[in-house]
User: What shape does this take?
Amino acid sequence: DAKTTQPPSMDCAEGRAANLPCNHSTISGNEYVYWYRQIHSQGPQYIIHGLKNNETNEMASLIITEDRKSSTLILPHATLRDTAVYYCIVRLYNFNKFYFGSGTKLNVKP
Amino acid sequence: EAGVTQSPTHLIKTRGQQATLRCSPISGHTSVYWYQQALGLGLQFLLWYDEGEERNRGNFPPRFSGRQFPNYSSELNVNALELEDSALYLCASRGREGSDTQYFGPGTRLTVL
Assistant: This one.
């Protein structure tokens, strides 16, 4: 039970913003939204996480809707090295269940 | 600061054999998680160890087992290997309570022939 729904693939032009959507309509009030990415056959890399408020760090921004049923990961200036599978995950804070769905394969093109 | 390390990088076994995979967490991290990623599939949660105890396991048969040592490193054992066990096995570590993010190692590629 991944609890999240993501499009299987997306394309983005190099230098443009990549906006990756995630639907988590069954999220409960104490569940966080996490984003990881996995570059081919490497270990997943943490990107960002949030609960209610929008978050930004050096890698990306996370926009969570007011009803928390969906979110968008924004890579402001995509590069070829951002080509990866991006996973949106919901989990209880400090809890063990951590379900990775199928993710979105982001193809950044020159 | 060194990240999560895993060994070996690749492991080739035959059906019925046993495989042992090892993971060293980030220094100071006490929780270790194991995941299986079969080719073309997402990550499936296997096991969670914290402070030397198994805290939870995913929907895998008992021939998948492991342990966590006093230095917080961990071992995953897979007995009676089957062809379907061929996968990338990923280990992640997390710090003490209050630190929530899991950091992943590079994985061990297990091939069962």
Observations:
- DSSP finds no helices and eleven strands in chain B.
- The first strand of chain B starts at residue 5 and ends at 7.
